[in-house]
Design a protein that fits this description.
Shape of chain B: globular
Distance between the termini of chain B: 44 Å
Helix content of chain B: 25-40%
CATH topology of the largest domain in chain B: Rossmann fold
CATH class of chain A: Mainly Alpha
Strand content of chain A: under 5%
Oligomer: heterodimer
Order of helices and strands of chain A: HHHHHHEEHHHHHHH
Strand order of the largest sheet of chain A: 1-2
CATH architecture of the largest domain in chain B: 3-Layer(aba) Sandwich
Structural class of chain B: alpha/beta
Number of helices of chain B: 17
Radius of gyration of chain A: 20 Å
Number of strands of chain A: 2
Chain lengths: 324, 515
């Protein structure tokens, strides 16, 4: 009997806690005027898409027991560089469509570079990405101190427009998660990422190309953050120097709330997906009720504390099974 | 429960009554009664998962018992509020399986951590601590600079220092040794256990509790032994009045002990051409130039003490270290093996010695642990994994190597040591290597599983492939190998071949010891 209860509680902690939380939030939301309308819910998802992309990136990096603090700067730097190249440096050569394609590729490159630096030279990724966080933010401020408010409609298309009444950003976000899900669950690389996170030495001895896979995770994280930046720039129809500044904390909140362990190897994509929606709904509900911004921060701080506690419970459950 | 000895003689060091520890869904220690006398070395023996280590953590306050009583040095312990600090005050000290030191701090700082030699006002007397640390190291047979950072010492020395700390600095009266001999070389082990015997005579108010996997160790060094099986203490025996065979019977219980002997170790096989040859391999320090080759269908044993160079040789062969000199040739062609991935591509499979640290991927299923080296071969053109095939292959391997688990999707951490090892051997065979390198394939595997693994090496691995096997057990090497290459101080000291006169445990033992 107790074994059943134990298994049930494990299942709940590992997979379904976030959905329980989501259900409670939605039930609460229904009692608030203006929450349960299609338009509001679409707006929630729309606003969540850029955060969701960054969370995906951090999720991958945490899985391999590394960390990337610079995602919020990549989020701003990639669209900035593409836009400046398109408008100022090579106006004839780079049409907006190319700039759209260029944006995530810039993210991919900076992610790969930071990853290679950390992995190949064996430097703590926390420190490397702390440096690139500052470096890229500085570059953004240098390139567009005043921001850019007139962007070609092709560049903002993905973030701004709708298909069938649904913001395209939501489709992009879902597509990104779907591809990531296929890779994590159905592709060799996903299995190797989990193997590295759980036991790097064992993975190496089993023939996994550990360094290459780790750098790949950093690169994909940069890619995903840049896609997030592209969507956010489109949604706001402008790019400003402090785009995404400080959002890395919320990215951590989402990733950890979604059940990703800071000690590597533990976490599921479905969990972090749910967590992003939970965060967006909390924000939306507070908007609707009209809570002041300072209180909002406190609420998120509280949510993060609870999430961290639950995550530690989950880790303890896992080790308990090991001992038994 | 069978008491063959009167526990009142000599006074009681500690006594457990009805001690029980439950984890959710599992009873790890069940209703254990145990009395250890002052002035004795008491052995605890049992198969993996029998509850030995949990029992030690209960006595040392690392874990809290669910129910039952503990009495230490005539004091009754409040079981519900018991903790390591309380245990220390009562004179209990646990030397764990793997020493837990702060690696970057010096030897002296580690030995006196928490209880430095005080000059008053909290100032520590570094000079005295250094001197004492040196003296303690000397007592356990080590010549060490007390300012050396702990990480620079080999695990073996750290283990000995951990014991030295418990004995000479904490001056504990109840010393628990949790498989301390596992990471020690034979010489160190003999030295330490002989030291125990001496110390227990010199200070009869102490008791030593020694967890061990080795029947022979217990027979040689313990006064009494308690056998644990399925989380219960099933017998306490007087070592002088029992035999190794009787003890082994108690340990395995109903499971018949299959003797590993030369009969199924096969007659010598017709020698085929060697396909892999190693020439003048050297890697400082430790490996000073060795040459040997392996043929298909042959099991070659590498024997030697720790530091004899056998580990370095196989590490170089699997791309885990760059040798300083030497050449490796496969089918007559020189190959350069720079990484484990390279080695695997060249058809070499490796079973590491430290299973949990180097091979098991915890938190993942048996399927993933089986397939991690071979996902490429069951992927579609897009790289997507054929899941039903993955499960089917895993099921096949589980059947082939008799892995006991509910399903292929069971988490690997839920398996016993022996079953984990079988999964890992299955992983190796999947990539069909031409050369298997097995480093201590029966390490941490229970008695009932050992013969199964040895038989699989002979009958399944060494059919189309060559096998290099490292083992600390001479009996195993004699049972399984066609040839045994003996390493001594970085060189090959001799080769024993099956079917020749000297192919016996005794000759092998002497060769390994270099006498």
């Amino acid at each position: 009997m107790s074994a059943h209860v134990h298994r049930l509680s494990r299942l709940l902690f590992e997979r379904h806690l976030i959905w329980l939380l989501l259900a409670i939030l939605v039930l609460f939301g229904v009692s608030i005027r203006g929450f349960a309308t299609a338009q509001n819910l679409l707006n929630v998802m729309w606003a969540a898409a850029p955060l969701g992309c960054m969370v995906l990136g951090l999720f991958l990096v945490l899985l391999i027991k590394e960390v990337d603090l610079s995602l919020e700067s990549t989020f701003a730097f990639s669209p900035t560089l593409a836009i400046v190249a398109m408008l100022n440096w090579l106006p004839g050569l780079i049409p907006p469509i190319v700039a759209v394609i260029l944006t995530p590729l810039i993210g991919l490159c900076v992610g790969a570079l930071a990853g290679a630096f950390a992995v190949k030279l064996r430097v703590n990724a926390f420190l490397v990405t702390l440096a690139t966080l500052l470096l890229m933010r500085g570059a953004v401020v240098y390139l567009i101190p005043e921001g850019v408010y007139y962007l070609p409609p092709e560049y903002t298309y993905l973030g701004e427009q709708r298909w069938l009444g649904i913001p395209i950003a939501i489709f992009v976000w879902l597509l990104l998660y779907f591809i990531a899900w296929v890779i994590m669950e159905r592709h060799r690389i996903g299995k190797e990422i989990y193997a590295i996170g759980n036991n790097e030495e064992a993975a190496l001895l089993a023939g996994v190309k550990v360094q290459r896979t780790k750098i790949l995770c950093f690169a994909i994280a940069g890619f995903a953050a840049a896609v997030g930046g592209l969507l956010e720039v489109g949604r706001l129809q402008s790019v400003v120097a402090d785009l995404g500044e400080g959002s890395i904390l919320m990215v951590f909140a989402g990733t950890i709330l979604g059940g990703t362990s800071l000690s590597g190897g533990i976490g599921r994509l479905s969990g972090v997906f749910g967590a992003v929606i939970v965060i967006a709904i909390i924000e939306n509900i507070m908007n609707l009720i009209g809570i002041e911004p300072s209180i909002r921060q406190m609420v998120f701080g509280g949510v993060l504390l609870i999430a961290i506690y639950l995550a530690s419970l989950q880790d303890r459950f896992a080790t308990r099974v090991d001992k038994a | 429960m069978q008491h063959l000895a009167d526990p009142t003689v000599g006074g009681i060091s500690y006594r457990l009554t009805g001690l029980t520890k439950r984890f959710p869904g599992v009873v790890a220690v069940s209703d254990v009664d145990l009395t250890v006398r002052r002035g004795e070395v008491h052995g605890i023996i049992g198969r993996n998962g029998a509850g030995k280590s949990v029992l030690m953590s209960l006595i040392s306050g690392m874990a809290r018992a669910t129910s039952g009583g503990i009495e230490i040095n005539d004091e009754t312990v409040d079981v519900a509020g018991y903790n390591p600090i309380r245990a220390h005050a009562l004179g209990v000290s646990l030397v764990p399986q793997e020493p837990k030191f702060a690696g970057r701090l010096s030897v002296a700082d580690n030995l006196f951590m928490g209880r430095p030699i005080d000059r008053g006002l909290g100032f520590v007397d570094r000079g005295a601590m250094r001197e004492k640390a040196k003296a303690v190291a000397a007592e356990v047979g080590l010549a060490i600079d007390p300012d050396e950072p702990m990480v620079r010492l080999p695990i073996e020395s750290q283990q000995l220092l951990a014991f030295g700390k418990a004995q000479f600095i904490d001056e504990a009266r109840v010393i628990l040794l949790d498989e301390i001999t596992a990471s020690l070389s034979r010489e160190r082990k003999q030295m330490l256990l002989a030291l125990l015997r001496r110390l227990v005579k010199a200070a009869p108010e102490r008791s030593y509790t020694l967890i061990s996997h080795h029947v022979n160790e217990i027979m040689e060094f313990c006064d009494r032994v308690t056998v644990m099986r399925d989380s219960k203490a099933v017998a306490t025996l007087d070592v002088a009045r029992t035999t190794a065979a009787e003890l082994a019977n108690w340990i395995v219980g109903d499971i018949p002990v299959t003797r590993i002997d030369a009969s199924h170790g096969a007659t010598q096989r017709p020698a085929s051409q060697p396909f892999i040859s190693i020439k003048d391999l050297a890697s400082a320090p430790g490996l000073a130039g060795v040459s040997f080759d392996v043929a298909l269908g042959e099991v070659v044993g590498l024997a030697g003490l720790d530091g004899s160079g056998k580990e370095e040789a196989v590490e170089a062969l699997f791309g885990m270290r760059r040798p300083d000199a030497g050449a490796i040739a496969i089918d007559g062609e020189a190959v350069d093996i720079a990484s484990p991935a390279h080695a695997i591509r060249h058809g070499i499979g490796f079973l590491p010695k430290h299973r949990e640290r180097q091979a098991v991927i915890p938190g993942r299923s048996i399927v993933e642990n089986t397939l991690i080296s071979s996902y490429r071969s069951i992927s579609t053109a897009l790289g997507l994994i054929d899941e039903p095939r993955a499960a089917a292959i895993t099921r096949e391997k589980m059947q082939e190597f008799k892995v006991k688990a509910a399903s292929p999707f069971t988490g690997i951490t839920e398996l016993s040591g022996g079953n984990k090892q079988k999964v890992l051997i299955g992983r190796l065979t999947l990539s069909s290597p031409r050369l298997f390198i097995l480093n201590e394939p029966t390490r941490g595997v229970d008695l009932a599983t050992k013969p199964e693994i040895l038989r699989a090496i002979r009958e399944e691995l060494a059919v189309k492939s060559g096998v290099i096997m490292l083992s600390e057990s001479e009996d195993e090497l004699i049972a399984v190998c066609d040839r045994i290459i003996v390493f001594f101080r970085g060189k090959i000291a001799g080769v024993l071949a099956r079917g020749t006169l000297g192919f016996t445990v005794a000759t092998l033992y002497k060769a390994i010891q270099g006498v």
